[in-house]
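To fix ideas, we quote verbatim one protein's residues and fold tokens.
>
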Amino acid sequence: MRRGKMIKHLPSYERGSSIFQSLMDIEAQEIDNRAAYIENFIEQLLIDTATWGLTIYEQELEIKTDVNKSYEERRSAIKSKLRGMGKVDSSLIKLVSDAHTNGDVEVTFDGRINIEFISFYGVPPNKKDLEMALEEIKPAHLDIEFIYNYLTWNEFDEYNKNWNQWDALNLSWDDFEIYKEVL
């Protein structure tokens, strides 16, 4: 496509030349490569689309780079660290916790920091990263207590489904046990 546009800009007597067509092929490829490079670079400027750029964010924020973690986990840690800069209060702790859990938490204080995971059941998959992020921003004299919710039999019965209906949903155990919105 780019090649065709470039050839249209040539004088008519050069458009049929195999030499100029070869040059246009090479130049079009170089321009496409450069455009792809620029697009990839722009993606690195946004945390949500960064890949190789995550390492730079982590170095800047003094987060230990762990390439064994998924991009999403690394992005969550970066967002959490960025959100964790400022006065520590319940809204800051909520922002940091929400970033790590990709869900919703409720934060209360009663001599300690209570964090309840309200948008899903069970323990969040990257709880350890959340604990480390909170340790960095919370006052040293306050402890953190995590409150988990689990599906009870009464809640399960309220869905009014028989076993065949549950089987038809084809849920994994994690889907079934952890995420309320799946049910």
